[in-house]
Amino acid sequence: MRAPWRKSRTASEADGVRRQRCYVDDKVSRVAWLNRSNIIFAGQDKWSLDPRVDLVTKGQLEYSLRIQKVDVYDEGTYTCSIQTKQKSKTSHIHLIVQAKDKQIADYKKRVKQLQEQVEQQLTRQEQDEAKILETEKRLLQEQLTAEKSLVAQLQEHLQQLNCEMEELKGKKEADMRGSTMEEVTDKPENGAELYSSREEKPIQAKQLEEDPHPVSLPHVSLMEKPVPARSEAEEEPESGSGRQWRRLLCC
């Protein structure tokens, strides 16, 4: 891997190791190395977690950054910030990393593989979503069918209840009509008797009006024995006491 740094006082390259130099004018200066707003070194303290990065100090005025096995991810701008009592200055070095042809082909192959994996994953997700939608649709259809069946059963049960209520109502009305007819058939007989008994009185009164001298019928006691009728030949002259006694009996 090549890093086309200009071989100058601030940058050098040797055996895959890239070195960025930074010099200070005063040993008491505060120095820091930054990479794309990330602090790599602050003084002698290392802030970066990358093990390929280390600090080179030669004497008291050099403050250089060294990167081993440079990768494309290391490309970018590096800044050396120097702050003194009198003034502050910064030096910027832009690192451009160019990969070899084989590495470029490997990257293209890797990108293609990633694209295929992404497409497969998207296709799988679409298929899964289609299956999920189909399953949900089938479940909803089954639920709707079950609800329709339940509604039909409830309607049939309600219809049966209505029929039973109508039958009970008809039986009740028939019983009421039967009891009413019995009362009606009983009342005319009693009424007829009463009316006939009441009619006799006007008839008797009318007869009395037509016949002002009614014939009084002899009162015959039930205890009396009937006297057999005698013929004229058998009749004998009665004495006065016998006639009187017979007259008393007749009266």
From TrEMBL:
<feature type="domain" description="Ig-like">
    <location>
        <begin position="1"/>
        <end position="90"/>
    </location>
</feature>
<protein>
    <recommendedName>
        <fullName>Ig-like domain-containing protein</fullName>
    </recommendedName>
</protein>
<keyword id="KW-1015">Disulfide bond</keyword>
<dbReference type="Pfam" id="PF07686">
    <property type="entry name" value="V-set"/>
</dbReference>
<dbReference type="InterPro" id="IPR007110">
    <property type="entry name" value="Ig-like_dom"/>
</dbReference>
<dbReference type="InterPro" id="IPR036179">
    <property type="entry name" value="Ig-like_dom_sf"/>
</dbReference>
<feature type="compositionally biased region" description="Basic and acidic residues">
    <location>
        <begin position="184"/>
        <end position="213"/>
    </location>
</feature>
<feature type="region of interest" description="Disordered">
    <location>
        <begin position="173"/>
        <end position="247"/>
    </location>
</feature>
<keyword id="KW-0393">Immunoglobulin domain</keyword>
<dbReference type="InterPro" id="IPR013783">
    <property type="entry name" value="Ig-like_fold"/>
</dbReference>
<keyword id="KW-0677">Repeat</keyword>
<keyword id="KW-0732">Signal</keyword>
<dbReference type="InterPro" id="IPR013106">
    <property type="entry name" value="Ig_V-set"/>
</dbReference>
